[in-house]
Design a protein that fits this description.
Elements lengths: L34 E5 L2 E5 L6 E4 L1 H9 L6 E5 L13 H6 L2 E3 L5 H6 L4 E6 L2 E2 L7 H6 L4 E3 L18 H16 L2 H21 L8 E5 L7 E3 L4 H9 L2 E2 L8 E3 L2 H7 L3 E6 L5 H10 L7 H4 L3 E5 H4 L5 H19 L1
Parallel strand pairs: 3-4, 3-6, 4-5, 6-7, 6-8, 9-11, 9-13, 13-14
Antiparallel strand pairs: 1-2, 10-12
Helix pairs in contact: 5-6, 6-12, 7-12
Length: 335
């Protein structure tokens, strides 16, 4: 995903359903011979139900697993610095589906897998610079589905995001449910996720008690963060906080440290992944001189969430619950 391929760790939800791991089987109506969906604002028609899907990155892969669609998969691409996948709710699915690449998808490994659908996203596998795009795959006769969080929005050449992040999650679950004939499973997951989020929202701080939050992904010279169209926006909002970069009309993007200092967040959320882990990032933030007067640094209000919590994935509701508990503590301490 994005500039770097990131890592995920264990899902820390209190219940299996909190991660979308437990879904009751359902008999849905069989899809017609062709299915038309709206993806990234465009109508896309699929001639048949895919049977050899390949996915790129952890969040996208786990959307398939959460719907019980591992039998429809020919493989996934994901770096091998993902943490201990043995403890995730979809361990059996990870064991069952072939790990095609420990980098990202290419035309070669897609063709080798005899894929009949590529499920990826812009900066989550799809990339103009390497020629791995839906249009390029279409020329090979391979259809695609684009992760809604990553849809280009036309504001700039690279800016992404066309709807609120949780709406993007629900849109993709509904679309996948229709495409694969598991509408009841998708509807049950969406309803369960919405209930989890509503439960957190009901307990969240209100009004001026809501802590302001900065999402720190990476970067020393300039920080990589979340605007209002990446998953952290609604994770923060529903948990009871305010994303200090809400005005940035993009998903994952770079800002300047001066804007972080000016907005003076009460809390910093670290995206934990890769070779530079959460503890190293925290040490940097606490020692970086320009941040010394920022409230989150002065009061050491720094929490980490896993990468898979913070990209569009079935782990988003459990991340909201974890962050919500932390923000309520912060709000009570400041009261």
């Amino acid at each position: 995903m994005r500039k770097q391929l990131l890592a995920a760790a264990l899902c820390l939800a209190a219940t299996a359903t909190g991660c979308g791991a437990t879904v009751e089987p359902a008999e849905d109506a069989k899809p017609s011979s062709s299915i038309t969906l709206t993806n990234c604002g465009r109508k896309v028609t699929y001639d048949r139900v895919p049977e050899r899907v390949v996915t790129n990155d952890v969040g996208i892969t786990e959307l398939m697993f959460a719907l019980g669609l591992e039998d429809r998969m020919a493989g996934f691409a994901m770096p091998d610095d993902k943490g201990d996948l043995r403890g995730v709710p979809w361990k059996d699915a990870y064991d069952k589906v072939k790990w095609l690449s420990k980098d990202q998808l290419t035309k070669e490994n897609v063709l080798d897998a005899r894929a009949d659908l590529v499920f990826a996203g812009w900066n989550y596998g799809f990339r103009e610079d390497g020629g791995f795009t839906p249009d390029a795959l279409a020329k090979l006769g391979i259809p695609s589905y684009i992760l809604t969080e990553s849809c280009h929005n036309g504001r700039t050449k690279s800016s992404r995001g066309i709807m609120p992040p949780l709406d993007a999650l629900y849109a993709d679950l509904a679309n996948l449910g229709e495409l694969f004939g598991v509408q009841k499973r998708a509807a049950a997951l969406i309803a369960d996720f919405k209930k989890q989020v509503a439960d957190v929202r009901a307990k969240a701080p209100k009004g001026s008690d809501r802590p302001s939050v900065f999402l720190y992904d990476s970067g020393r010279d300039t920080p990589f963060t979340s605007g209002r169209y990446a998953a952290p926006e609604q994770i923060i909002t529903e948990a009871g906080g305010v994303n200090v970069m809400h005005d940035v009309a993009d998903s994952w993007t770079t800002v300047g440290w001066e804007s972080v200092v000016e907005r003076d967040p009460d809390v910093i959320v670290i995206c934990d992944y890769g070779d530079v882990g959460a503890e190293q990032k925290k040490r940097f933030l606490l020692s970086y001189a320009p941040l010394r007067d920022v409230s989150a640094v002065k009061h050491r209000r720094i929490i980490s969430l896993d990468y898979a919590d913070l990209v569009e994935s079935p782990r988003n509701p459990s991340a909201i619950a974890r962050l919500g508990a932390y923000l309520r503590t912060v709000a009570n301490d400041r009261a």
